[in-house]
User: Which sequence fits this backbone?
C-alpha cells in the first residue's frame, strides 16, 4: 500500500476526484451547552462542509464502514418422508444436545 500526505490545498482537488463516490467525513453539528463545537461523521457533498480541525465527534464512523446488519448464517429444515421428527432429534430445548441428532443405544 502506498501512503501519501496531501497538503490542505490539494485536498479540495482530491475531494473533486473522489466525488463520484459517497464521501463521509467530519462535519460541524452546532455547539454544546458550553459553546464548544460538536462534530459528527456524515456524508459530505461539498468540500467546504468538511471540518478538518475537528477534535472529537459525537458518533464513530462505523456506520459508514460496517453493515447495519449482517446475515451470519441461514438454514432450511426439510421435511423427512415417513419419519417421526421426534425420533431423529432431541426434544429437550434446554439440553446441550438439542441441535445434535439423537443416537440410539443398543
Assistant:
Amino acid at each position: 500500500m502506498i501512503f501519501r500526505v496531501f497538503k490542505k490545498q490539494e485536498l479540495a482537488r482530491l475531494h473533486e476526484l473522489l466525488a463520484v463516490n459517497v464521501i463521509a467525513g467530519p462535519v460541524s453539528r452546532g455547539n454544546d451547552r458550553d459553546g464548544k463545537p460538536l462534530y459528527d461523521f456524515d456524508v459530505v457533498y461539498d468540500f467546504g462542509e468538511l471540518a478538518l480541525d475537528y477534535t472529537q465527534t459525537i458518533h464513530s464512523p462505523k456506520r459508514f464502514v460496517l453493515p447495519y446488519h449482517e446475515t451470519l448464517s441461514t438454514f432450511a429444515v426439510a421435511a423427512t418422508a415417513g419419519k417421526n421428527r421426534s425420533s431423529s432429534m432431541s426434544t429437550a430445548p434446554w439440553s446441550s444436545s438439542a441441535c445434535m441428532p439423537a443416537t440410539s443405544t443398543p
Remarks:
- Residues 8-18 form the longest helix (11 residues).
- The beta strands are 24-31, 37-43.
